[in-house]
Amino acid sequence: MTEANLKRKESARSWISEYTRVLKLAKKPSRKEYSLTSKVTGIGIILIGVIGYLLKFVSVVIQNYGS
Fold first, then answer.
1. Do residues 10 and 18 make contact, with C-beta atoms less than 8 angstroms apart?
2. pLDDT tens-digit profile of 33-43?
3. pTM of this prediction exceeds 0.70
């Protein structure tokens, strides 16, 4: 085998071992943890939407005021 093929195989083995290590550490979140994550994500989405709406509203007011 060529050196490039050996490097590719070693790289693949390394990636597989790292991937397996991550899967062994991963766990299913508890119901409480999942609920908290959902609430925080929802609040974040709503907050970003409100900020976007306010910026758009201010932009429209400024444009209409200048006319």
1. no
2. 999 999 999 99
3. no
